[in-house]
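User: Can you predict the 3D structure for this chain?
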Amino acid sequence: MLLKLGVDISRLRRPIRRALNRIDRVFRDHGLEAVITSTYEGNHSPSSLHYANLAVDIRLPKKLSPAEITQELRDALGSDYDVVLERDHIHIEYDPKRGVINS
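Assistant: Here is the predicted structure, written as structure tokens:
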């Protein structure tokens, strides 16, 4: 896994930090390198989980369908994580849903 210049992962909280290995595995399964483009840096909405150190943005791969990699990440991370395909990146945040029973 690579980091865009200026990206700091040292503040990431445990749940999102643990997800990095799974994110990396999904990309490596396709012979690709995941690139984190943002954690708390940059401009995000005021309520963004980036500022709680519970979110990362990942660069979209050029050699794979964005929808396909997004779905694979959702499957790998499970329901406690939101995986959102944005215009130029994939946003991933730890946001467990209380009261939801996972089967």
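The mean pLDDT is 92. The longest strand covers residues 89-94.
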